[in-house]
Design goal:
Length: about 400
């Protein structure tokens, strides 16, 4: 699996190629010990940051706690702590970089006066039982030899090479998921794989009843409902965990850990089903169209509505991200369109309705030109108009007086 990162000005940017790992018991012990040192260092950074904040409030000073100060703290700690010095300095330095980015993002959100619900929040403690293992290595901290991954500190793991890396990787991230599976994701320059030109364009409008409505009936994405089919099974595992929940500070029983693993496995299956559906649809869209106008929809507000569960099951954000990724990978033109007034504008004449249409209203009728169309189809056509890709003969609208035909 490859995920293309956004890297403006660098052509196709970089891609993260993820592979499954086969970890021996010796390597597992070493990785867990390495993560214990990095987790301790993260918590020390959190404590230092909070101490600096309290000091500034008490004295009125403006002391900082950036990566430079934390790097000096790491050097001093490694000099006087043999346990910390036993580990590699590469992942320890990278955990400080991650902490610095997280803290800087929190300060940026505060400076921009974002609502509290939208702020990233300051970094918090990483507990041994809750935080999943994540180790980052730069180029000087790993090497590939005979198909195996050699990490700093003498740790060697086997990689399941499902595909070849397109180029020399610049960094690698080792992480463990909720099921205990180990993965390594390499960052390498993305390789553009151009597809033949088709001369066609497409507009995409996101929704809840139907995940994606497009100007082509053949490329609509219906709501898959993977989460709805797994809801009964997940509820059963939740009840199993609730009956066996341990008291605070105590280790969970074997039955509790089994129920927790079953619940994580069911969630992982739903996530993979959503990802598979989104990637297959995105590949079909990119293969059949040269340019795609996509609504730049931010579905976070739906979490506070009665549509929250169905909107989360639709995975609109993940599907939009994979469509953008697929477009970059195959050299297609993906244009993001601001979603404001897309349900009120007429795709035929551009007139704007005088009032907001109710969410339950499925048919859009323009009061200026009389054009009638399914509401989501009209919105998809608006995406094309705003992106400058409005072709003659696009589906989804009809001239005045023509019989209405619902989208298939």
């Amino acid at each position: 699996m490859a995920r293309v990162e956004t890297d403006a000005g660098a052509g196709a940017g970089h891609a993260r190629y993820t592979y499954r790992l086969r970890v021996s018991s010796t390597a597992r012990t070493a990785l867990v010990a390495e993560w214990g040192r990095c987790r301790w260092l993260w918590n020390e950074c959190v404590a230092k940051s909070r101490a600096v904040h309290l000091h500034n409030r008490a004295t009125g000073e403006k002391a900082t706690c950036g990566p430079a100060q934390l790097d000096r703290m790491l050097t001093q700690a490694r000099a006087r702590t043999p346990w910390l010095r036993e580990g590699s300095c590469v992942p320890q330095q990278q955990i400080i970089r991650d902490f610095g980015r997280s803290r800087a993002k929190a300060h940026q959100d505060i400076a921009e006066r974002l609502p509290v619900a939208r702020r990233a929040g300051m970094p918090t403690w990483k507990t041994r039982r809750e935080a999943l293992l994540t180790l980052n290595y730069t180029r000087r901290g790993f090497r590939l030899k005979d198909g195996r991954l050699h990490l700093a500190g003498g740790i060697v793991v086997s990689v399941v090479w499902s595909r070849d890396l397109p180029d020399e990787p610049s960094s690698v991230r080792l992480h463990q998921d909720s099921l205990g599976h180990w993965y390594a994701s390499f960052v390498a320059p993305a390789q553009v794989q151009p597809l033949p030109k088709t001369g066609r364009v497409l507009g995409v409008d996101w929704g809840v009843k139907q995940t994606a409505t497009t100007t082509s009936d053949a490329h609509d994405l219906p709501h898959a409902g993977h989460g709805g089919r797994a809801r009964a099974r997940l509820a059963r595992y939740d009840r199993m965990m609730a009956r066996r929940r341990p008291k605070k500070g105590q280790r969970g029983s074997r039955g509790y850990r089994t129920a927790k693993k079953l619940r994580a496995k069911a969630h992982k299956r739903v996530v993979r089903q959503r990802a598979d559906t989104g990637r297959k649809w995105a590949k079909k869209v990119v293969r059949d169209h040269d340019a795609v106008a996509v609504e730049d929809f931010r579905p976070k507000f739906l979490a506070k509505t009665s549509m929250a569960r169905k909107a989360a099951d639709a995975a609109i954000s993940a599907t939009k991200a994979v469509l953008i990724e697929m477009g970059r990978k195959h050299g297609r033109d993906i244009r993001l369109v601001h979603p404001a007034y897309t349900t009120m504008d007429c795709a035929q004449c551009g007139a704007r309705a005088k009032h907001a249409l109710p969410l339950g209203e499925r048919i859009y009728t323009c009061t200026a030109c009389g054009t009638t169309a399914p509401r989501d189809k009209n919105s998809a056509r608006v995406m094309l108009v705003r992106a400058g890709l409005n072709p003659a003969g696009a589906e989804g609208t009809r001239p005045p007086g023509a019989p209405l035909q619902e989208a298939a």
